[in-house]
Design brief:
Layout: E1 11-14, H1 22-28, E2 33-38, H2 42-45, H3 48-58, E3 62-66, H4 75-87, E4 92-97, H5 99-111, E5 133-138, E6 150-155, E7 160-165, H6 167-170, E8 174-177, H7 187-205, H8 213-235, H9 240-252, H10 267-279, H11 283-301, H12 304-314, H13 322-339, H14 356-367, H15 379-389
Parallel strand pairs: 1-8, 2-3, 2-4, 4-5, 5-8
Antiparallel strand pairs: 6-7
Helix pairs in contact: 4-5, 7-8, 7-9, 7-11, 8-9, 8-12, 10-11, 10-14, 11-13, 11-15, 12-13, 14-15
The protein binds 5,6-dihydroxy-NADP (NZQ) and zinc ion.
The site of 5,6-dihydroxy-NADP has 35 residues, from helix 2, helix 5, strand 6, helix 7 and helix 11.
Length: about 400
């Protein structure tokens, strides 16, 4: 196991009715003027936004709002939020929604105190050193942004989807997580979220670091739990227990717990970010297409841990033929993804003729000549993975 620092100061307030504690939590972290950020309307329609504004009013906490954040959030909304936040002198960010809303709020939070262009953080020209405090009301378990130190934004000019990772600055102060708020999620969004959280665990799990049995078992156990609860949700979307397990799994999948001491991979995420940037598909659905293709490629090139994954997560029997075990693991994962309604090829994702030349070129321009760590992938390898996903 490698040396590591694990710092996760977010206060999670989990369970039924917990959104009623939003104003109390904002006050606890000294918010006096709040910028509420939300998406395309689900929080308005469910009445959640109105309830939260009422709670802030009752607590005499001033607030302004920025709505209309779209999935795969883009830079213009961040600039709008930075301008609004500065003009209104806000001192606290309150995103109500999922990864897109939270990531926009995070970018605004570090953009407000920064004198330059916030995009500098995404292109590595500067590192965020401070940010306004931020608390989250989560409405979809998926991206794990409620507990992560990351934000992912797409620059419209050039369609560059890039991320910043500075946990010491960007982790939320608190996250309110009421699984009942996820009852309104369409089955498709639920499944996209489930795929994304599984991918977050797998990016950490596929590592060459030795002596990581505890992180491995945490990854495998959490993945098995997600699979069982996901299948329960297909039949019973209003099952509170299943929603609760899935919601918490989304957080531990990405707050760092599962990957401590391991060299992480992240190639599949980088491959996917190009797809959602160019074709504006859901990140989770893009991962459902990329990850099985990545597993299939690895069966041929480095089957060891994929075979372990196949055995321990998908109950593929042990054998000396690691390649065959790995391929069977990929097949079982694909079957599961189909069962929850996910696509596993470009075609099923609605992209008849993906521009693989463009995806490969953008990927390596954005992420360098070699991506991933489990196997370092060059242009030929990433092209092959996109082609497997297109077969
Ligand atoms: O916009 P509204 O109307 O709110 O609708 C949203 C949106 O259409 C809807 N939704 C959310 N909660 C709902 C609901 N609909 C009904 N009932 C509810 N309770 O769901 C749709 C998707 O929302 P979004 O926020 O886009 O989903 P998600 O949480 O999957 O976030 C995806 C974004 O996060 C990035 C992705 O790349 C993508 O841009 N990621 C962020 C990460 C991070 N910050 O650590 C890591 C991830 O790997 C990921 O890259
Ligand atoms: Zn993800």
């Amino acid at each position: 196991m490698n040396n590591f620092i694990f710092y996760s100061p977010t206060e999670f307030v989990f369970g039924k009715g917990t959104e009623a504690r939003t104003a109390e939590m904002v006050a606890k972290f000294h918010g006096t003027k709040v910028l509420i950020v939300y998406g395309g309307g689900s929080a308005v329609k469910s009445g959640l936004l109105g309830r939260i504004k009422g709670l802030l009013d009752e607590a005499h906490i001033a607030h302004v709002e920025l709505g209309g954040v779209q999935p795969n959030p883009t830079d213009p909304k961040v600039y709008e939020g930075i301008e609004l936040g500065r003009r209104e002198k806000v001192d606290f960010l309150l995103p109500i929604g999922g990864g897109s809303v939270i990531d926009t709020a995070k970018a605004i939070a570090c953009g407000i105190p920064y004198e330059g262009d916030f995009w500098d953080f995404f292109i590595g020209k500067a590192v965020p050193e401070k940010a306004l405090r931020l608390g989250v009301v989560l409405t979809i378990p998926a991206a794990g942004s409620e507990g992560s130190g990351n934000t992912v934004i797409t620059k419209v000019d050039g369609l560059r989807k890039l991320s910043v990772r500075t946990p010491e600055v960007l982790r939320p102060a608190f996250a309110i997580m009421n699984p009942e708020l996820t009852f309104t999620l369409p089955a498709w969004q639920t499944a996209c979220g489930i795929t994304d959280m599984m991918a977050h665990i797998m990016e950490r799990y596929f590592s060459n670091t030795e002596d990581v049995d505890v992180p491995d078992r945490m990854c495998e156990g959490t993945l098995k739990g997600i699979v069982a609860e996901a299948l329960r949700l297909v039949k019973e979307p209003h099952n509170y227990g299943a929603r609760a397990n899935i919601m918490w799994a989304g957080t531990i999948a990405h707050n760092g717990t599962c990957g401590v001491g391991c060299e992480e991979d992240w190639a599949s995420h980088f491959l996917e970010h190009e797809i959602s940037a160019v074709y504006d598909v859901s990140h989770g659905a893009g991962l459902a297409v990329v990850f099985p293709a990545w597993l299939t490629y690895m069966a041929e090139h480095h089957a060891k841990k994929v075979a372990q994954f196949a055995n321990r997560v998908w109950d593929v029997p042990e054998s000396d033929d690691k390649r065959a075990m790995a391929l069977e693991g990929a097949a079982r994962m694909k079957a599961f993804l189909h069962e929850i309604g996910m696509p596993t090829t470009f075609k099923e994702l609605g992209i008849e003729r993906p521009d693989i030349d463009l995806l490969v070129r953008k990927l390596h321009e954005n992420k360098g000549e070699l991506v991933g760590n489990y196997v370092r992938l060059d242009r030929r390898a990433t092209r092959e993975i996109y082609e497997i996903a297109n077969s």
